[in-house]
Design a protein that fits this description.
single chain; 267 residues; alpha/beta; Rossmann fold; six-stranded mixed beta sheet; 8 helices; 6 strands; 11% strand
Length: 267
C-alpha cells in the first residue's frame, strides 16, 4: 500500500512522547513512534519523522513552543495531542482551549499540512475526582470531534473508546497507557489515515501491572501533588523527545528492537 505521507511531525505532551511504553533503551516509545513505523512499512518511499513532544505541557505553551518549529519542517502530516494536562488541573477554560486549538489546526492546514488530532484515552475511572475530570474531558473531546469532517483534518477519538476502561491497557501510574494501549492507539490512527497497520508483535507485550492502592499513591500520586504545590511540571527543563527530522526504520516495531529512527530519540 502507498500513501502520501513522506514526513511526519508529532507535537504534544506525555501522550505523544509515549510515556508508559519503552524502547529497549529505556526511553519512551509510544503510539506516535509506532505510527511513524507503520507509515514507513506501508510504502517503498523513505518516511521521515520528528517528535517535539514534552511531558507535562499545558496546551498554550505546548502550541507556542512546538507548533512553529514543526511547521517549519513542512511535514506532510502533523499530529497534535494536547490539552490533557489542562483538563486535570483545578481550573481550565474548555472553550478557550478549544478555540486556541482550532486556530492552531487552521494554521497548520493553511500551510498545506494534513492535521491529525489524537484525543487521550479516558483515565478518569481510575482517578480521585474522576467524575469532575470526565465532565471536562467530555466537553473537550466533543469540541474536537466537530472538526473531523474538515478535508485536511483527521480526528482519532480515544476518549470515548470504552475499550480503554480495561485495566490491561494502562501503566502502573493509571494516567498513561502501557505498551498494549499504545499499540491500540497506533492501530486506530493508521486505520483513520487509510494506512494498513502492521501486525503488532503481541508476543512481546509485558504483563499488565496492577499495583496496590498504597503503592500507586506513594509512587505516583504524592509526587504529582508535590509538583503541583511547587508549581512545577514533569517536563520542566526537558528537551523535545526527538528534535531532528530523521528517516524511519520500518522494521523497528517491537519493544526488543531500537527506535523508529536511525538514531535513538532523546527523551
Amino acid at each position: 500500500m502507498t500513501h502520501r505521507f513522506r514526513s511526519y511531525a508529532a507535537i504534544g505532551d506525555s501522550f505523544a512522547e509515549g510515556l508508559g511504553d519503552l524502547h529497549a533503551s529505556g526511553a519512551p516509545r509510544g503510539w506516535a513512534d509506532l505510527v511513524a513505523q507503520g507509515l514507513a512499512a506501508a510504502t517503498t518511499q523513505q518516511v521521515s519523522y520528528v517528535n517535539l513532544a514534552i511531558r507535562g505541557k499545558l496546551l498554550s505553551p505546548l502550541l507556542d513552543e512546538q507548533l512553529a518549529p514543526a511547521l517549519a519542517l513542512k511535514p506532510d502530516l502533523l499530529s497534535i495531542s494536547g490539552g490533557n494536562n489542562d483538563v486535570i488541573r483545578p481550573r481550565v477554560s474548555i472553550q478557550a482551549n478549544t478555540a486556541r486549538l482550532k486556530a492552531a489546526i487552521d494554521q497548520a492546514a493553511d500551510a498545506g499540512t494534513h492535521v491529525l488530532f489524537v484525543t487521550v484515552a479516558n483515565m478518569t475511572h481510575q482517578l480521585p475526582l474522576g467524575r469532575l475530570i470526565q465532565i471536562r474531558g467530555d466537553r473537550y473531546a466533543h469540541g474536537v470531534q466537530a472538526w473531523q469532517h474538515h478535508d485536511h483534518v483527521t480526528v482519532v477519538d480515544n476518549w470515548f473508546d470504552t475499550a480503554f476502561h480495561d485495566p490491561q491497557f494502562w501503566a502502573a501510574d493509571k494516567l498513561h497507557l502501557n505498551t498494549r494501549g499504545h499499540y491500540r492507539v497506533a492501530t486506530k490512527v493508521l486505520t483513520a489515515l487509510n494506512v494498513t497497520a502492521p501486525t503488532w508483535p503481541e508476543q512481546h507485550l509485558p504483563p499488565t501491572e496492577t499495583p496496590s492502592s498504597r503503592t500507586h499513591f506513594v509512587q505516583h500520586v504524592i509526587p504529582w501533588i508535590g509538583r503541583r504545590l511547587r508549581g512545577r511540571s514533569s517536563g520542566d527543563g526537558r528537551p523535545p523527545k526527538q528534535g531532528t527530522l530523521l528517516p524511519v526504520d520500518p522494521t523497528a516495531a517491537s519493544p526488543d528492537r531500537g527506535g523508529p529512527a536511525t538514531e535513538a530519540p532523546t527523551s
